[in-house]
What does this fold into?
Amino acid sequence: MSTLPQQRVQTVPADIRFGIMDLYAEYSAALDEGRYEDWADCFTTHAEYRLTTKENYERGLPIAIIYCDGKNMIEDRAFTTSETTISQPRALRHIVSGMSVSVDGEGYRVGADFLILQTMIDRMTEIVMSGRYMDRVVIDGDRFFFESRICVTDTLLYPTSVVAPV
It folds into this structure.
């Protein structure tokens, strides 16, 4: 019987893990409450934000449903979502679980499952999307930021009116 060599996993200190969890909570609350400028403030200046399908992600394809390269594009998405979108009123809830954190140079690789629920005044609550966040988080001063956020949906089918960030 052969055994594989054990890989040593660097433990992430609790204060770092809690800081990352706070960033995720801040991000979700900003989206759920429609505070898109606050959502944009969760990213670094040179951040990447993508919403893509699991198939494209696994194949390493750059094709994305939403793609923002840099904070200016992220802020433009925030403005467009809050100021120009016309849609029926709805309540969104982002549920995040299954977080994994590992050290990546001067930052952290973070993965977490997400589920987005939507409630409209004339409908039952429904699942809008599920998937996994694949992120790189960095610390600047005492704040945590997303340097990269890739939202990977579990399905090829997604709402045709994806406007709000995931």
Remarks:
- The helical segments are 14-32, 36-40, 54-58, 71-83.
